[in-house]
Amino acid sequence: MALRSAPLWLLVLLAVALRQSCVGASSHSLKYFYTSISDPSQGLPQFVTVGYVDGQVFVQYDSHSRRMQPRVSWIEKYVGKEDPQYWDRETQISHGHEETFRRNLETARVRYNQSEGLHTLQWMYDCELQRDGSREGFMQYGYEGRTFLTFDKETLTWVAPVPQAQITQRKWDAIPGLNQRNKAYLEETCIEWLQKYLSYGNETLLRTEPPGVTLVRGKTEVEDGMETHVCRLDGFYPREIDAFWTRDGVVWQEDTLHTSVAPNADGTYHYWLSIWIDPKERGRYRCHVEHDSLPEPLDLALEEPTNSKSNLGLIIGCVVVALVLVGVIAGILVFFSKCLFLREGDGRTPFGELLLGFLLS
């Protein structure tokens, strides 16, 4: 049961939300994205929840199916054995989320003095277990694609970048113990769920697959004689990868461009980095690649030109299209606050209902 039923724009939007730099990504992460729209058209759901483990969609709920559903086989297999009530419980929780988002969308519209029409309310939380054992977390709300509220777990306060959010900020900061519980959730409860999901999907999530590395040379610029080279990495897992250009064995950042690590349909990842160089100095450059799947780093030298036609134009074209798409969509999706709304005994935290109930009241 893949995300085939979800609209294309939503899948792209969520994919953009997950983009990270290839350097310094967390070792393992659990993320939930919630999106609600006030005026659905062309069959789009009014409310969608999507959960990710290490960037892989593993659960989804939407207002069409009205069921929390598995999106990978490992969660369906193991949860069915260990927690038979999981799907019914998550479905009921999602029903509550959907209704609360509907009310808060209307409240937000009034607070911003807007007319009826298409408006969006979004929410995100994530927790990260990094390689060194440290724990990170993040939560944020957004309205109309812009940040509405962000939780600062170091100062235990909410940050309101817009005046319309200050009412909620003051309420939440005044609730005794609430922000301490938010922090504890991100650094403890959420991590416990992440570790549980990793144990369920260990054959998939803890595997390693090495990158296929291809060097592609482009045309030489007429004006200055400089030429472009692209180092393409594909099919690797996990997503953490360290790749850069070197000159004479030293990291070289000048005249370089790289994309973000992006997912493939099969759950692996791909990544590109390019460089502009003087062809006379071609022998000085290498594409350096480090990944958990590699017994030792790779250093690939640039090849001498051949008579074969380069396909760099196609690659660069794809990069340009991707960057334009990111620029259009990036303003839509905002990251939001944590995994809440659950009742006592459901395995997460009972104070979630409090947060959404107060969100825009």
From TrEMBL:
Cellular compartments annotated: Membrane
Ig-like domain location: 211-301
SMART domains according to UniProt: IGc1
Entry's Gene Ontology cellular component terms: external side of plasma membrane; extracellular space; MHC class I protein complex
UniProt KW Cytoplasm keyword: no
Species of provenance: Notechis scutatus (mainland tiger snake)
Membrane-spanning parts: 312-336
Signal peptide: 1-24
Protein name in the entry: H-2 class I histocompatibility antigen, Q9 alpha chain-like
GO process annotations (BP): antigen processing and presentation of peptide antigen via MHC class I; immune response
UniProt keyword annotations, A-Z: Disulfide bond, Glycoprotein, Immunity, Membrane, MHC I, Signal, Transmembrane, Transmembrane helix
Topology relative to the membrane: Single-pass type I membrane protein
Pfam family, one: MHC_I
